[in-house]
Write a structure and sequence with these properties.
The chain has 330 residues and is mainly alpha-helical. It has a single domain, classed as Hypothetical protein af1432 (Orthogonal Bundle), CATH 1.10.3210.10.
Length: 330
């Protein structure tokens, strides 16, 4: 079988620290293995073919419903994370298929309007909403694998990587740890690129010291960060970075929070977006029958959270118009 050939290749070629497909802890619900694809390849395919993955193309990264064609969305961010993570995994001879599956699924639970939406759901609900936990809920419950089962029934390794790509807990696999760092490498660099394009900042505004260490261009910085991750993690049982690169990266991130993420022109529409989501939340909480039946569970508040978190920016805006703006009667 083709799967056996791939699994044999993994055993012969990959690092002793790699997560081998044959050694996976498996799925919650047992399935007959595919004779062509490994367990992690099947997980990747299930994520790519999910509705939640397709919706990422219309979800905000930093700029809310951007007019320009070249601004990142949650989908392009996800693809950049996957590319960076696979490069690092290849360099360290880790499992690229597992790495890619985690990267492609890590933001499936992200709200419309970026982290503004996440903040709203924390404010208006009694739950401690976080997009990584919601991403796990998407693959475990909200996406159907077939007509009779809920959830994509992903492997434990992919689920762990999705859940722990952010937050206090570290992924158990080195592949998951790569995605956790690749996520930060991707958003720090592409958010600088988008902020420059939007004239929120100028090149002269970028802090000089981090650029001396990481590079003056977008590609130079990513190259420096990825090379450092590979070189520092080589022959180790965990993914790490050198203190020099980690410090410079942290300084760039702090710059973005000060100049882009908080109170900049990129956030001019954020309060409107937050107000819209709060109104939608209260409306659906009092009109639960208006939510499609596919979101049904035993908890009304959770149904509303799932529905709103799954919305794209433009769908949330459209529902706001439909529900709260009068249609002229002529």
């Amino acid at each position: 079988m083709l799967r056996d050939r791939t699994e044999n290749w993994e055993e012969d070629y990959l690092s002793r620290f790699a997560t081998l497909s044959r050694d996976s802890k498996g799925r919650k619900y047992r399935e007959t293995p595919c004779d062509i694809r490994t367990i992690f390849q099947r997980d990747r395919d299930r994520i790519i073919h999910s509705k939640a993955f397709r919706r990422l193309k219309h979800k905000t990264q930093v700029f809310i419903s951007p007019e320009g064609d070249h601004y990142r969305t949650r989908l392009t961010h996800t693809l950049e994370v996957a590319q960076i993570a696979r490069t690092a995994a290849r360099g360290l001879k880790l499992n690229e298929d597992l790495t890619e599956a985690i990267a492609l699924g890590h933001d499936l639970g992200h709200t419309p309007f970026g982290h503004a939406g996440e903040q709203v759901l924390n404010e208006v609900s009694s739950r401690n909403f976080s997009h990584n936990i919601q991403s796990l809920r998407v693959v475990d419950h909200l996406e159907k694998k077939d007509k009779n089962k809920w959830g994509l029934n992903l492997s434990q390794e992919v689920r762990d990587g999705i859940r722990n790509h952010t937050g206090d807990d570290i992924p158990k696999t080195m592949e998951g740890q790569i995605v956790r760092i690749a996520d930060r490498i991707a958003y720090i660099n592409h958010d600088i690129d988008d902020a420059l394009r939007a004239n929120i900042i100028r090149k002269d505004d970028l802090p000089e010291e981090p650029l001396k260490t990481l590079g003056k261009t977008h590609s130079q910085r990513i190259d420096t960060m990825v090379r450092d991750l590979i070189n520092t993690s080589m022959n180790k049982q965990q993914i790490c970075r050198s203190s020099k690169i980690k410090k410079a990266t942290g300084n760039l991130r702090n710059f973005l929070f000060a100049k882009v993420y908080i109170g900049s022109g990129a956030k001019t529409e954020e309060q409107k977006a937050k107000r819209l989501l709060k109104i939608l939340f209260n409306y659906y909480l009092n009109n639960i029958e208006k939510i499609p039946r596919e979101y049904s569970c035993f908890d009304s508040e959770q149904i509303v959270i799932d529905y709103i978190a799954g919305m794209t920016d433009r769908y949330a805006i459209r529902k706001g118009r439909e529900l709260f703006i009068p249609t002229p009667g002529y």
